[in-house]
Structures are given as structure tokens and as C-alpha cells.
Amino acid sequence: MNVDVTVLLAGLAVNIPFVFFSSDLVFDGRKGHYAETDAVNPLHLYGETKAAAEQIVLKNSRHTVVRTSLNGGVSRAGNRGFNEDLRFAWQAGRSVTLFTDEFRCPIFAGETARAVWELVNQERSGLFHVAGAEKLSRWQIGELIAARWPQLNPKITMGLAANFPGPPRALDTSLNITKVQGVLSVPLPGLGEWLAANPNEPF
Fold it and tell me: How far is CA 61 from CA 50, 58, 116, 127, in A?
């Protein structure tokens, strides 16, 4: 789907601007703070299909690839954001295990939307990293969300991605957002900064 649908849509949009959303998981997570110029090296199929789709989109000079990280907020179905997953677990009285050695750049989805629309209105094409301005571990993210919902008595257990029994995980896919910060009228905030500035925003 990530590749075939992108081929179809990019073809239909061959003469107009087109924005494709990609992922920080095109990187292997070995160094972090990845810039747009860094080589991709995905560790799993999802990242591989996103990386392949990026190349299709970038063949057209009018098209744009937006790589982003974890996006949070209130989704229509109520089960799409990383914050919603945590809240549901706590509402059910469950403790969640969050890694202290896996890092992302989480962002409020509304900030992502604002940035993307500004790129569209400025007719910016090419590759941009659009993510939070702060690198956080999964554990740190959980602490921020837990502080938002004290009435749920949130419980978090520390874990290590390095000990995860499943497939290898990209440990640090934090994104360098210097390029996009230089063209936006309002800089992208870190998740902690955004939460502090928007205490009444549903999240």
C-alpha cells in the first residue's frame, strides 16, 4: 500500500503539488539527529516501503516529502495517537512499560498540520523533517502524558528496547528540523513546551 498507492497518487498529481507523509523509521536509529541529507537504512518492512515511496515522490520537482515522528492529539476514532494508547491503558488500570533507550521527536498533530500547510502555501517542494523540537525517550514521553492525566493514577514501568524480544528496534530516530524551522513563520515546539503552553488543549 505504501508504495503502490503512492505511485498511483503521485501519477495523478504529476502536474500539481503533492505532499507525501513519511516516517523517521526510514533510519536505523544508530546515530540520531538525522538531517534530510542523511542516508536512509530502515530496519523493517514499514521503513523500507516508506523509503521506497519517498524516492517515487521526489522524482517530481513539484512534490514534497514530509518525514515526521510520533504525532499525538485527539483522533476521530479516539485510538490513533500515542497519547490515546497510554490513556486507554491507564483508564483500564494497566501499567505500561516504556523504553528509556528509544528516542523520538514527538509532536502535537496540529503543529504538524500547521507546518505542512505553510510549506504548501509557500510552494516548498523536496524533503523536509517536520517533528518536535525536543528528543525524548519513550519513558520521558510517558511521564509528560502521565502528568496530563493524574486522575487516572498512571503507572509506568521502565524498560529497555535493547532487551525487547521482537525484531530489532531503531533506538534513536530523532530528526534534525533545522531546515524546516528556517522557513516556518512560527517554529515547531518540543512536546514538553507545547503541553506547558496548552494546558487546556485536549490531548
Answer: 19, 7, 17, 10
